[in-house]
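Sharing a chain and its predicted structure for anyone who wants a worked example. Both blocks are below, sequence first, tokens second.
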Amino acid sequence: MQRMKSKGFTILELLVVVGLIGLLVGILVPYLGSSKRQAAIRACQSNLKSLAPAVRSYTLDHRGLFPEVANMPSLGISELPSLPEALEGYASFNSFTCPSDIDVPFHEREGSSYEYNTQIAGEMLDSLPRGDGLTWMLCDYGPFHASSAFAEGAINYVFVNGDVSGTQGRDDD
């Protein structure tokens, strides 16, 4: 008596295929999450990069002086305008929102996800070293950008010369 061969898959073959698909999904999911975080970091850096020329344009229109703004307007201790108010007409409202500003939404509370370096407020643009890549102009209010390199989170900075970088923690010097 001869056995007839079936034209379908055996259960063992089906289980092997399902197992391989599960293994591939398990390998790819962390990379997809990492890509999403990297995209948010790049969007934040792009926002900061677009705010640098806005501040520069402001200084050129105001006798070379950097804007004087309230650092944390929600505290109500200053009559100075917020950064978005001072740069109205120079920058898009969306530029003031970091996509990673979700845990403590500074944008909702302060009007911006970015802190302005008040040490340069009211200073002359020409008083800073030419091509100044050491003095920060704006940075994230907090360490929004967790990654494998910075577990606690990184802060993006834009410097007076327009360069943008991310670092762990904050250096207010």
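Comments welcome. The mean pLDDT is 82.
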